[in-house]
Protein 1
Amino acid sequence: KAGVTQTPRYLIKTRGQQVTLSCSPISGHRSVSWYQQTPGQGLQFLFEYFSETQRNKGNFPGRFSGRQFSNSRSEMNVSTLELGDSALYLCASSLDTGVGNEQFFGPGTRLTVL
Amino acid sequence: EDQVTQSPEALRLQEGESSSLNCSYTVSGLRGLFWYRQDPGKGPEFLFTLYSAGEEKEKERLKATLTKKESFLHITAPKPEDSATYLCAVKTSYDKVIFGPGTSLSVIP
């Protein structure tokens, strides 16, 4: 069974640009969550999608947005990039949204903003 | 304010030297507490979910316990391959997921 895949794995952008990251969940998983990981702030929750609907959102500015498609694949977009957006962006999928559903993480996309 | 802390920040053990990692939480309602292991350059790998005080779960050399204010991850007779960063996270009654900063474990042969 294939794991969670994220593309691209590495990305370099400059301030002011925008970026789109992609996540393909494990087959059959309908819930996708996104996290930002930095050395200073650790892992922080961005948002959670289930059946194409955003169920939950973390404390990030509106420059961070996402969506989920009918096949459960998800994308997140960051507009007007800032230096502080440099981070590892992780996607996690689970069968459902219940707390008992184990989350499987992808390898992440390493974003560097210059 | 909901908060999750972990201690120690880093831990260095000799192979076979048992120890415990701590995760303390202050949240408005706990739906579940999770332990993950993260290796360098990889995403976190799920280890355990605990739901209520008094609950314990085991997997190989790892045992997780939960009280009303904290969780412990006990590592018995660790091996070098147990070296990783161990993260705990909580899911609150508002469905927010909050991660702790992690404990970096090094097991020396």
Protein 2
Amino acid sequence: GAGVSQSPSNKVTEKGKDVELRCDPISGHTALYWYRQSLGQGLEFLIYFQGNSAPDKSGLPSDRFSAERTGGSVSTLTIQRTQQEDSAVYLCASSTGSGHLYEQYFGPGTRLTVT
Amino acid sequence: LAKTTQPISMDSYEGQEVNITCSHNNIATNDYITWYQQFPSQGPRFIIQGYKTKVTNEVASLFIPADRKSSTLSLPRVSLSDTAVYYCLVGDKGNTPLVFGKGTRLSVIA
């Protein structure tokens, strides 16, 4: 079946502009996660959703970052007033449940470059 | 969460067995050990998960000694396509975000 998809695959934006990144999880997966990965680094957790609610927003680096999920499906990560340090690959993952024991299925990521 | 330590990089020739060891001295009673694999320009992919002793699937084996303070991911007869970063993670069912370190970069050489 279809995996996790993300769009756009690449995004180049000017410093100070807003960007929206989209994630389409696997159908039926109730948990959805956002991570980001800077060059050569491990993954940094940003936020996760169980259904449409976000029990854990602890990883969002600043109030410029926000995310929402509608209909228990698609999620959008919005970064306002982008800064150069926001440049990274943003990865979305989904799973059938929340918690370490559930396998997370990752999308291919959105590569964001802020110039 | 238990901290994990694994080698930064490893090299191997094609056809060899590769063992990547992860140290997790502070692992808790309810923690499980999970390994993910990440190819260049892709998101990570689940490989294997275990609690104790040995787990084997079609991709790899996971060896966990009795004290569970370390674990070893074993990849049999690696090929060039196994070149990737391998992450060791530790957590229990209540730990929701996966905590990734920098992983081990495995390079397979022809």
